[in-house]
Amino acid sequence: MNIIYYTDQVYLHGGLERVLANKLNYFSKNTNFKLHVITFQQLNKAPCYKINDKVTFHDLGIHYNRDISFLHPSNIKLAPKHYSRLKAKINEIKPDVIVVCNYEFGFYFIPLIAKKSINIKEYHSSGHFNYKARLENKNVVKKYIYKISDYFETKYDYLVLLTSDEQKYYKSNNTVIIPNAIQETTLKTAKLTNKKVISAGRIAPVKGFEYLIFAWEIVVKDCPEWTLNIFGDGDPKYVAQLKKQIKTLNLENNIFLKGATKTLESEMLDSSIYVMSSLTECFPMVLLEAMGCGLPILSFDCPNGPRHIIKHNEDGILVEYLNIKQLAKNLIELMKDPTKLKSLGYHAKNNMGRLTEEKIMPQWLKLFKKETLN
Q1: 10, 80, 293, 367: which could form a disulfide with 268 (CB 3.0–4.6 Å)?
Q2: Where do the Glycosyl transferase family domain residues begin and end (predicted)?
Q3: From residue 14, how far is each of 65, 205, 233 by CA, in Å?
Q4: Which letter, b or e, does each residue of 130-168 get, where b requires 16 or more Cβ atoms within 10 Å of its Cβ?
Q5: pLDDT at 372
Q6: Are residues 65 and 40 part of one domain?
Q7: Which stretches of the chain drop beneath a pLDDT of 50?
């Protein structure tokens, strides 16, 4: 079976890239699939996560300006070249299945190009804010664009969503729920004795790190010996904003922006709490990885993902959405209660068994064969 995964790039650290690498490595090890990754803007860079050598990579070399909308005229003029190169590559590979990982011109091109393959669109983020924008939208042009997107969604064999909460955002009846899977959890477990809290992810406003920094201003008054390490890279303007906020609040000795790391598991094992302050998430891999290391989780109860992973007061704590004072209070309580800290961490690691690749990946195999999921 010939399988294509289509995305923009695989050189940046992120949840989508991590999930894709895990899937490719699983299929490389457990099937005889011929696996291909088509990117359009890889920029001659190596994948950020290790991917099995059996996977063949193809880059279309389309250099969009990612600082502006894909619908900006300077980007739209590149679309015909994108279409022709993508069509030629698909015709060359002759795939049985195409999985579209992101959302740009290729989302519209592939149902037009690949009519003989099983076409699957997988969503890695929540449709919450897009749904709200649709409800509030009064722009005629945007309404037309929404209708076009809805139409093309019906042209896919399956839309794969991460949680059941997401189904209400889609009008077509081809949705399937498959959560992200975690590879076998590390045999190591965090000792939970270091006074370190960790957070990680793409440094972008949707991750809500400014809320976490404001909460930490409260935390240090009660627990000044604890530090917060934030790992990841991203929007330079947002990074500068966070650095300025940390300096203004005199937290330079308490909060550290560490940048991206290839040793995130080691950093987690060296920490005692994982905290997430995102405005929205769907099924964040970083939570699964942190729980796999035996870290208790504190997360805003944001739409729509953490509540599908965290069992409140069993393996983590769901904090009222965007409530900074409550986030700080829960952090302080956990820092001062080592018994609860260790109990949450124990259950966090134990509960990840329900989301292993052995449990989740067979669902993908059924889709590739067009079998009905139970």
Answers
A1: 293
A2: 191-350
A3: 19, 15, 9
A4: eeeeeeeeeeeeeeeebeeeeebbeebbbbbbbbebbee
A5: 61
A6: yes
A7: none
Write down the pLDDT at residue 185. 65
Tokens of 68: 């502006």
Q: What's the number of domains the chain is made of?
A: 2
Bond before 304 cis per omega within 30 degrees:
yes
pLDDT at position 186, please?
A: 67
Query: Smallest Cα–Cα separation from 172: which of 160, 163, 162, 184?
Result: 160
- Residues 6 or more apart whose CB falls under 8 angstroms from that of 147 comprise none
Q: How far apart are CA 226 and CA 228, in angstroms?
A: 7
Paired residues of 2 in beta bridges: 34
The sign of the CA dihedral 180, 129, 9, 293 is negative
Quote the radius of gyration of the chain (alpha carbons, Å). 21
Complete DSSP assignment for 180-237: --BPSPPS----S-S-EEEEES-BSGGG-HHHHHHHHHHHHHH-TT-EEEEE--B-HH
As a whole number of angstroms, the distance between CA 5 and CA 343 comes to: 40
Residue 246 and residue 117 in one domain: no
Which range of residues forms the domain containing residue 314? Answer: 196-355
Interatomic CA distance for residues 294 and 288, integer angstroms: 10
Same domain, yes or no: 172 and 200: no
Q: Please report the pLDDT score of residue 305 as a whole number.
A: 80
Do residues 363 and 339 share a domain? no
Same domain, 245 and 363: no
Contact 207/257 with Cβ under 8 angstroms? no
Q: Which of 134, 71, 112, 328 is nearest to 220 (CA)?
A: 328
pLDDT at 373: 62
pLDDT at 67: 87
Residue 98: CA count within 13 A, CB half-sphere: 28
Cα–Cα dist 85/69, whole Å: 21
On whether the CB atoms of residues 297 and 317 are closer than 8 A, the answer is yes
Q: What is the spatial distance between Cα 289 and Cα 323, in angstroms, rounded to a whole number?
A: 25
